[in-house]
Design a protein that fits this description.
355 residues; alpha+beta; Phosphorylase Kinase, domain 1; Transferase(Phosphotransferase), domain 1; GMP Synthetase, Chain A, domain 3; five-stranded antiparallel beta sheet; three-stranded antiparallel beta sheet; disordered N terminus; disordered C terminus
């Protein structure tokens, strides 16, 4: 469906929540009203981006709209509901990103992911950004889906550029398979992983450096690379915070920033404890104890039936992916606690544009 042809406008979209806002687009979750009534949908709009990023933003939007329209029923990406020069609307795909779903030892997931990826390539669409785990979803049925087609390219024939790009898509999928399900890797897949294409080697040596400088340093664009030793310190930091007399529980989880992965501490206390006091407590521990970049004081952390803190839910909050919380199995009390926590979260991505 193309809005230019039907006369539809953003009046047909009922927004429920702003999920993300950066220099290239604003993403909102809500409902799209079409001929068959309202359906759950996601809106990407570029009408509020800075003028100096608008040409790139429009290119990204056009790429995504064309790619989603092309793959249609391939079953790997969301369905395109509407598109226009300033926005596009796609169907909502319920599921969790790979780094939270963690399809460990799930050979069926990766087998189906490979099948769907090949089906997408047969339509002439290459994703070009599948190295990022958040771009892979595990839907409500446990099946693989892909999101974020802003860098996708369309090809009319199986040219050399297409074959190289498609190979990179597959290689990135196999890297995830090696991480989560290494025993299911076949001999041919291992050989493919061992041989990077010449185009990839050139990109890593030249273009990737420029890309990182522009996106991370100049624009503050976020990804999940570069966790470093801080990630491995998270359990130790949480344990140390929990030793504070006023703390009943603590969790420390990673979140992405323009300069790599940082740590976000959620501290449960019913006393008048402040974030600065938590930081001072950590600094007094000695031994070079890292101090989380963000510290949020809460009255109650979400817990599972076993009483353990739900770090998967807290990671969604830390990464500002609150739209995915609905897919977690939480009891009513934990949902109430999480709702209050989300309302006061400290990592709202749209603040980068307001500063």
């Amino acid at each position: 469906m193309n809005t230019a042809a039907t006369g539809l406008s953003l009046d047909h979209f009922r927004s429920v929540a702003v999920l993300k806002s950066d220099h290239f687009s604003t993403i909102e979750r809500g409902f799209w009203r079409g001929d068959a009534g309202e359906v759950e949908a996601v809106l990407r709009r570029i009408d509020h981006v800075p003028w100096w990023t608008r040409p790139v933003a429009r290119s990204f939007l056009k790429r995504e709209a064309r790619a989603l329209a092309r793959i249609g029923g391939a079953g790997i990406g969301p369905k395109l509901l509407a598109s226009a020069p300033e926005f596009l609307v796609r169907a909502w795909v319920p599921g969790l990103p790979m780094h939270l779903a963690r399809p460990e030892n799930d050979a069926a997931y990766f087998r189906e992911a490979k099948r769907r990826l090949i089906a997408m390539h047969r339509t002439g669409v290459v994703h070009n950004d599948l190295a990022k785990e958040p771009n892979w979803l595990r839907d409500a049925e446990g099946k693989p889906r892909v999101t974020d087609f802003q860098l996708a390219t369309l090809h009319a024939r199986r040219s050399l550029p297409f074959r190289i790009a498609a190979r990179e898509d597959l290689r990135h999928l196999l890297k995830h398979k090696r991480k989560y399900c290494p025993t299911a890797l076949g001999a041919a897949e291992r050989r493919l992983l061992a041989r990077k294409s010449w185009a990839n080697r050139v990109w890593m040596a030249t273009g990737k450096q420029i890309y990182n400088f522009v996106t991370r340093r100049m624009l503050g664009y976020m990804d999940r690379e570069g966790g470093g030793d801080a990630l491995y310190s998270a359990p130790r930091i949480a344990a140390r915070i929990a030793e504070h007399a006023s703390v009943s529980a603590a969790a420390v989880v990673p979140y992405p920033t323009a300069r790599g992965v940082r740590l976000y501490a959620f501290v449960e206390t019913r006393a008048s404890l402040t974030a600065d006091e938590v930081r001072e407590f950590l600094r007094g521990a000695g031994g070079g104890m890292p101090v989380p970049s963000l510290v949020q004081i809460v009255a109650r952390l979400p817990r599972g039936a076993d009483g353990q803190v739900r770090e998967d839910a807290l990671r969604l909050v830390a990464e500002n992916q609150i739209d995915l919380v609905d897919h977690l199995a939480l009891d009513a009390e934990s949902r109430r606690n999480l709702a209050e926590l989300m309302e006061r979260r400290l990592n709202r991505s749209d603040r980068r544009l307001q500063s």
